[in-house]
Amino acid sequence: MNNPSSPVKLQGGCACGDVRYECMAEPVLSLNCHCSACQRYTGTAYASVRIVPSAAFRFVRGELRYHTSTSNAGHTVSRGFCPNCGSQVHGRIAEKPEVVLIAAGTLDDASVYPPSIDVFTSRAQPWDVMNPGLAKFEEGIPAGGPSTQTAE
Ligand SMILES: [Zn+2]
Ligand SMILES: [Zn+2]
User: Fold this and answer.
1) What is the DSSP letter of 4?
2) Dihedrals φ, ψ of 85, to 5°?
3) Any idea what DSSP says for residue 150?
4) 3 state DSSP class of 2
5) pLDDT (tens digit, 9 = 90+) per residue, 19-28?
6) DSSP for 61-79, written as a single string
7) In the chain, where are the structural domains located?
8) How far is the CA of 49 from the centre of ligand 1 (A)?
């Protein structure tokens, strides 16, 4: 899968296999988002997200169902779920069409491109354990922050 000669840098899908995707570019940013919405949507402490260029991402199979809400930062975020098994696979931010979000747990190999930052740490639960080695942002990524300002 991580054959260096393959143009596919990332691939994955939902739990039941109805939905499959691939991405031809490496993530522009990998992060853990501790915002209130990610806690609700994932049902756990945070979402681990890989942010990739929209142009490099495509679905190979299946269709997601999207739910749209306003994030802690005021962005319009649509999260895509498999209508069959309910896995949250993909996300879009209306204000940032140049990138899409991949739920890291849906990657076939989620060990690659590990997160480099934690965002919305002010919303984290007291029992949420974070890697002390990662840069922390109490809210979203501030202007001039790491690479793209893509966090919610
Ligand atoms: Zn599924
Ligand atoms: Zn979030």
Assistant:
1) T
2) -105, -10
3) -
4) coil
5) 999 999 999 9
6) E---EEEEEE-TTS-EEEE
7) 24-137
8) 18
Contacts of 9 (CB under 8 A, 6+ apart): 23, 24, 25, 26, 56
Does residue 147 register a pLDDT over 60? no
The 3-state secondary structure of 84-146 reads: CCCCEEEEEECCCCCEEEEEHHHECCCCCCCCCEEECHHHCCCCCCCCCCCEEECCCCCCCCC
Decide if pLDDT at 2 tops 90: no
CATH of domain 24-137: 3.90.1590.10
- Of residues 53, 54, 57, 49, the one with CA closest to residue 23: 57
Tokens coding 76: 């319009």
Q: What is the DSSP string of 5-64?
A: TSS--EEEE-SSSS-EEEESS--SEEEEE--HHHHHHHTSS-EEEEEEEGGGEEEEE---
- Please give the backbone phi and psi of residue 132, each rounded to the nearest 5 degrees, phi first: -65, -15
**Distance in Å, CA 132 to ligand 1 centroid:** 34
Nearest listed ligand to the Cα of residue 21: 1
Residue 6 pLDDT: 80
Residues near ligand 2 ion, CB 5 Å cutoff: 33, 35, 38, 152
Torsion-angle region of residue 103: left (phi > 0), alpha (psi -120 to 50) or beta?
beta
Look at 134 and 150; give whichever has higher pLDDT.
Answer: 134
